[in-house]
TrEMBL record:
PROSITE patterns: ADH_SHORT. GO terms for molecular function: oxidoreductase activity. It comes from Stenotrophomonas humi. Belongs to the short-chain dehydrogenases/reductases (SDR) family. This is Pteridine reductase. Keywords: Oxidoreductase.
């Protein structure tokens, strides 16, 4: 097998950071399995673009990560289509406020299911194939895994759980598969909007005095997959220095 035949499954890859990661890996020779739940039109548009660049290099997978029964099937679809799996990028996430005192069990279950449970069970399903290729896993966590976000205690807890999943699986899968994480800070402003005052306050707390870019996240993911051969169980905090303040 040549390097150009490497295969990566990227969850939540229809848009925003996930789409940038998929494009970046594809540009560096990966065949990519795109995943989406609700953003299927955007996923198909991205797939069309990538297929136009390199025919036969893209698979699309629709699945609700809240349903654990879909996860082994996702991996099986990828392996059946491409014949191998070299990389798993757990990018998909859900995010909404859960003010303490008003949290419902359903909110807890949904946030933990997508942000922590799905990455764990996708990794479990993918592990035999990743071991065969001596592949790697990268999880997308959040700076709020270690610095809780006010009015988002359940989301922060879920991302903290994903950091421990990263460390635990690094130990379980060594030496054959490396498992690391990227913890972004402010990369894209929320789609629901953020006031200019709030943006300015955030910049004042960021030593680099700017937000990051999706391309910087994608580059970090590819570095962890391809070049960081002696690194496992680590979280790369790509936050412009926010955790220093």
């Amino acid at each position: 097998m040549t390097e150009s035949q490497r295969v990566a499954l990227v969850t939540g890859s229809a848009r925003r950071i996930g789409a940038t990661i998929a494009r970046h890996l594809h540009a560096h020779g990966y065949r990519v399995a795109l995943h989406a739940h609700l953003s299927c039109e955007e996923m198909q548009s991205l797939a069309f673009d990538l297929e136009s660049e390199r025919p036969g290099s893209v698979l699309t997978v629709e699945a609700d990560l809240r349903d654990p029964t879909t996860l082994p099937d996702m991996v099986e679809q990828v392996v059946s289509h491409f014949g191998r799996l070299d990389a798993l990028v757990n990018n998909a996430s859900n995010f909404f406020p859960t003010p303490f005192g008003q949290v419902e069990v359903e909110q807890w279950d949904e946030l933990l299911a997508v942000n922590a449970r799905a990455p764990f069970f996708l990794a479990q399903a993918a592990a035999p194939h990743l071991i065969k290729q001596r592949g790697a896993i990268v999880n997308l966590t959040d700076l709020h895994a270690t610095q809780p976000l006010r009015e988002h205690p359940v989301y922060s807890t879920a991302k903290a759980a994903l950091e421990m999943v990263t460390r635990s699986l690094a130990l379980e899968l060594a030496p054959h598969v490396r498992v690391n994480a990227v913890a972004p800070g402010a990369i894209l402003w929320p789609e629901q909007g953020k006031s200019e005052q709030a943006k300015q306050k955030l910049m004042e707390r960021t030593p680099m005095a700017r937000i990051g870019t999706p391309h910087e996240i994608a580059s970090a993911v590819r570095w962890l997959l391809d070049d960081a051969g002696y690194i496992t169980g680590q979280t790369l905090r790509l936050d412009g220095g926010r955790t220093l303040t």
